[in-house]
Amino acid sequence: MKTLIKGGRILDPATGHDAIGDLWIQDGKIESITPPGAKAPQTKDHVISAAGLAVAPGLVDMHVHLREPGAEYKETIASGTRAAAAGGITSVACMPNTDPPIDNLAMVELVLSKAKYQGVVNVYPVACVTRGREGKVLTEMGELKAAGVVAVSDDGDPVSSPALMRCALQYAGMLDLLMINHAEDKGLSGKGVAHAGFQSMLLGLSGIPRSALEVMIARDLILAEETGSRIHVPHVSTEGGVRMIREAKARGVLVTAETAPHYLVLTDDSLQGYDTNVRVNPPLAEQKDQEALLAGLRDGTIDAIATDHAPHSRREKEMEFALAAPGICGLETSLSLILTALVETKILTLLQAVQCMSFNPARILKIPKGTLKPGADADVVVFNPQAERVIRASAFLSQADNTPFDGWKVKGEVVMTLVGGRSVFENNEHTKAIHPA
Ligand code: DOR
Prior knowledge:
32% of the residues lie in helices and 23% in strands. The chain has 437 residues and is of the alpha/beta class. The strands form 3 sheets. Strands 1, 2, 3, 4, 5, 16, 17 and 18 form an 8-stranded mixed beta sheet that branches. Helix 4 (162-175) links the parallel strand 9 (151-152) and strand 10 (178-180).
């Protein structure tokens, strides 16, 4: 039996394909893309009508906090991967700031085994750069890579010592393991809770200067250049960050970068009202920063859009702004926010948006995902880019609901998500139409 996704707008950033057609799936793999109606399905084939819908490689989110083990009250691998599927995401790289942290073989195996039995999308663990995320002793990167980790990071904390980071880059480089360093100099961010600027001053919130992000990016670019190793800069949020990465890329430094949807749609103006759901690290910055990020996405300086999905419980958010945990849930809003703010406004084409959310992160992580080429795993998202919907945090499949986007009217609805050819999420409203009773 084959699955036919029929008559959709098929987007494959790996080949530049963007045309109406039929997508054929067999035995969990992409079989072919054919012109609409060119080949008739057999009676036993499963046909999914995608007329008016987009059909793209399942999204790859390279920055996700699944919180397991240790903070299962916020999220679990089971709930987080279901939330991913609802957002059209079929692969996630999960960060190691768990409790205990993912810094040894046993922890990697635990995450992989939970993902296998309880998860519904592909989970790629990121392991710590240093034991216990303490910034003192390097982890056994070779052993971790052999166990299946795709990158190392002490996310949530930077590797503060330049000497240790230099050494870590040399090891990671030798192993061809991606280094992701949390872009924050803790000495500069101090006890700050919001971007240091007019808004934080007006609201009486202690500020985090943009240099907190930029000093760490500058240091890491120098070390990556010297060692010749790859470095990936997470959650880029300021103009200076974009500029330095652009210059480093032009010099041939092996740097890649990501930003998150919240930096593309919000600025520090949204601090007014003290909604703790906009407290995030790095903090939301200014209009000129947002413009620089958008320009960076357009010219390829910023390669990927990743959610930095950071679920927290209500009791960690329902309190005074300065005391609330930083982070925003992103898995179930990311595609719609990008479609609404970047594609509708023609900042990116739909194909470019899909590229930043699937093919590019897969390429950076060196995982065989993010494409609809024949033979690739049939990880597919079918979505309606035009459908209007209202984001409802209460309907999230994530265990958490910390989002500043509750009630936002957005474009874009995920209709179906397939992993290895199997449906892992179906939007009931739509599938009723696809499979009439
Ligand atoms: O806002 C954030 N929350 N930024 C991070 O870097 C970590 C994350 C978390 O783990 O909650």
